[in-house]
Amino acid sequence: MGSNVQIAATLRLTPQADGATEIAYRADVSLWGKLGSLGEPIFRQKSTQMGREFAQCVKGKLEARP
After folding, report:
1. Measured in whole angstroms, how far is the alpha carbon of residue 10 from the centre of its chain?
2. Across the chain, where does the E strand assignment appear?
3. Of the N and C termini of the chain, which has fewer Cβ atoms inside 10 Å?
4. pLDDT by residue (tens digit) across 15-45?
5. Torsion angles phi and psi, residue 12, rounded to 5
6. Domain residues of the chain, as ranges?
7. Are the CB atoms for 41 and 61 separated by under 8 Å?
8. Are 27 and 4 in contact (CB under 8 A)?
9. Is the pTM of this model over 0.70?
10. 47: nearest Cα among 64, 66, 30
11. What is the pLDDT of residues 2-11, one digit of tens each?
12. Nearest in space to 22 (alpha carbons), one of 13, 31, 33
């Protein structure tokens, strides 16, 4: 198929003055070949969905703590 994917991701946790922690994540994805030309919209939609799911999961776990 002659396609290639490159991903660089970071997750940053920053303590806040009120004892909370700010969570920031970033992912840079590069798609080449047929995968890039045909699959880019699907990758973009799925990554947005997964980002929301990640945030909801972390929030749920933190709120469930005593």
Report:
1. 9
2. 4-15, 21-32
3. C
4. 999 988 898 989 888 888 877 777 788 888 8
5. -120, 130
6. 4-64
7. no
8. no
9. no
10. 30
11. 788 888 999 9
12. 13
